[in-house]
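Protein details
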Amino acid sequence: MGLIKIFTKAKCPRCPAVKEIGKELKKEGASVLSYDLDTIDGLAEASFYSILSTPSIIIEDEEEKEVMSWRGVVPTLQEVRHHLSPLSPALKRGEG
């Protein structure tokens, strides 16, 4: 299975929705890493991925290649699952 990276900031009004997507995907067994752009480490990771706006989500495959990303927008949980499905058929069905 791939990896989901979530980039947020404390004062971002849309970031809580993306954090909820991350929590739900973790419950379903996905690997989710969260980065706070208010920290040095978060900024460094965001810089590596050229993240210019929050919230942002990146899905990577097992070789750390970007499969899909949403930058500055909040996708639906179903949209994220859809792009994870080639990496994990169980997530597409909503199974853990």
Q: What stands out?
A: Helices lie at 15-27, 40-48, 77-84, 89-92. Strands lie at 3-8, 31-36, 56-60, 66-71.
